[in-house]
Design goal:
Elements (H helix, E strand, L loop, with lengths): L1 H13 L44 H25 L8 H12 L1 H10 L3 H17 L7 H20 L7 H19 L1 H25 L6 H19 L9 H12 L7 H12 L1 H37 L4 H18 L4
Pfam families: Lipase_chap
Organism: Hyalangium minutum
Keywords: Cell inner membrane, Cell membrane, Chaperone, Lipid degradation, Lipid metabolism, Membrane, Signal, Transmembrane, Transmembrane helix
């Protein structure tokens, strides 16, 4: 990506600029060299001092076209990855600006020497990729696109971030729905669906799981079937495999919670549910880690119980606070080793 953009920027730096409004505006060229008009398309322009080969495009021009297409493709792929995550539905402008900073850093470092607006070039290429992928209307200019995203970011800050109650799940959900309504009002229903459809689905998936868990009218089997139907619908409508944008283990843990709605499962059953969504190796590692955490929690609980009992014994024996503190340093070390908490 970096090499492609540097080559493209270098081409732009060498492309002819519009002549100033002065008396002598005719370019000075060698005899026999043709000069295209200033309003000719970029691929028809070249360095006026370079030799021409009839109507065939120069090799440098072909290279510039290739580099531009490659750069736009790479930025487009980065956009698709970003737009598939839930946080894109909340602060799209901030996320795309961060993408530009990461992807265009090499161009920025060379831009000053090349006298080219590298940041502007990257924004142009990214917008071109987004416009192509979303089939945006010609009425949506680059400037308008970034303006809309800025307004969406500001609405999120105002309606969600600035509300301290959104630290609670239910309050965040209500604020998020209010924000979505405001967002649709900013960008329009059609563009909202194209820009944020998948990100919204990813962000709302845990909410839907909670709704299923608290639905008293459905059995565990019905809850799991509804969950699987939701996953299939999202994939069908977006054309994206959810496991490629959401951690498969997260999808598996949602399924496990729904399956255990009727009661806890045995180790083999839990492994089977997790393996179905995340694969057998991931399921095995997750369950092993869970068991290790549970064992450590139990050892820590036993450690605290014994430590409290020893402190009480020392107090009954008449030791003062400072004496107890001195004795407990040695006792704590023995307890750490006993319960393997080091």
């Amino acid at each position: 990506m970096g090499i492609a953009l540097v080559g493209l920027v270098a081409w732009r730096a060498l492309a002819p600029r519009a002549a100033p409004a002065a008396e002598d505006t005719a370019p000075i060229v060698a005899p026999g060299v043709s000069v295209p008009p200033p309003d000719a398309p970029w691929h028809a322009r070249s360095d006026p001092g370079a030799p021409q080969s009839g109507s065939a495009p120069e090799a440098s021009q072909l290279k510039a076209q290739f580099l531009m297409a490659k750069a736009r493709q790479t930025l487009g792929q980065a956009y698709e990855r970003s737009a598939s995550h839930g946080d894109f539905a909340l602060a799209p402008g901030r996320i795309l600006k961060s993408l530009l900073e990461r992807r265009c850093g090499l161009v920025q470092r060379h831009a000053q020497a090349l006298a080219v607006d590298a940041a502007g070039l990257c924004r142009e290429l990214l917008f071109a990729a987004v416009k192509e992928r979303l089939a945006l209307s010609s009425n949506v200019s680059e400037a308008r696109f970034w303006e809309l995203l800025t307004q969406v970011d500001e609405a999120y800050e105002r309606l969600v971030v600035a509300d301290p109650s959104t630290a609670r799940d239910e309050a965040f959900r209500a604020a998020f729905e209010r924000f979505r309504e405001a967002r649709r009002g900013i960008v329009g229903a059609d563009l909202d669906r194209r820009l944020f459809g998948l990100a919204d689905e990813v962000l709302r998936l845990p909410f839907q799981v909670e709704d299923l868990l608290h639905d008293p009218k459905t059995s565990a089997e019905q809850k799991l079937a509804a969950y699987e139907e939701t996953l299939q619908r999202i994939e069908r409508e977006s054309g994206v495999r959810l496991a490629s944008v959401v951690e498969p283990l997260e999808l598996a843990k949602h399924a496990l919670r729904l399956q255990e709605a009727a009661g806890p499962l045995g180790p083999e059953q839990r492994q089977a549910v997790l393996a179905r969504y995340a694969g057998p190796e991931t399921a095995e590692r997750y369950l092993a880690n869970q068991q290790e955490q549970q064992d450590r929690s139990e050892r820590l609980h036993a450690f605290n119980q014994e430590r409290d009992a020893l402190l009480e014994q020392l107090a009954r024996a008449g030791l003062g606070p400072e004496q107890r503190r001195q004795r407990m340093a040695e006792i704590d070390q023995q307890l750490f080793e006993k319960y393997r908490l080091q």
